[in-house]
Fold this protein.
Amino acid sequence: MKEFKLIPLREENVKRFKHDMQEAFQSSAEDVMGPVEGEILPEKDIDRNLSEEGVIAYEAIVEGELVGGAIVTINKETQHNELDFLYVKRGVQSRGIGQALWKAIESLYPETKVWETITPYFDKRNIHFYINKCGFHAVEFFCQSHHDEDSTWEAEHPRMDDKFEGAFRFEKNIEL
C-alpha cells in the first residue's frame, strides 16, 4: 500500500466519512444476510458517538483519498480505551488498509492498557480481522440470556440495549 496516513477527521470530510462508514457497515451486513430492511448504522448513532466525552475520529488517507476511518474513545485516567467504529470504504477492502489503520491507532496511544471493541456475531470477516490480524480476544457474547449485573462493561455503558444482541465484545490487553 502506498502512502498511508491517519489524521484527525477534518470538518469538510465529516459528511463523506459518515456516508462511507454507513455504506461499509450496510454492505458488510448484506453480504452475509442479504438485503436488510433499514439502516444497519443510522447517522444518529454516529452523531451520538461523536458527541461523547473522550471521542476522537480519524480518517485514513491513501494517496490523498479518504479510504476509511475510525472512532475511538480514550480514557486518559484508566487507559482502558475503546475502538467504537473502524471501517474501510466499500470497494477498497482486502488491501491492508484496515490493518494499517489499526496499527496507526495503536501507535498513537502507546500508554493504552486495554483496547475494547464490539462486533456482530454474523460478521466473520470482522471477527477474523480483530482476532487474527489485530490480536484481540473474544471475552463476552451478548445474547438474550446474557444480562450480567456484575459486568463492568455493561455498568460503564448505560446506552447498552438490545442493539448489542448477538455481538461479541473483544479486548486486547496490552499490559500482559
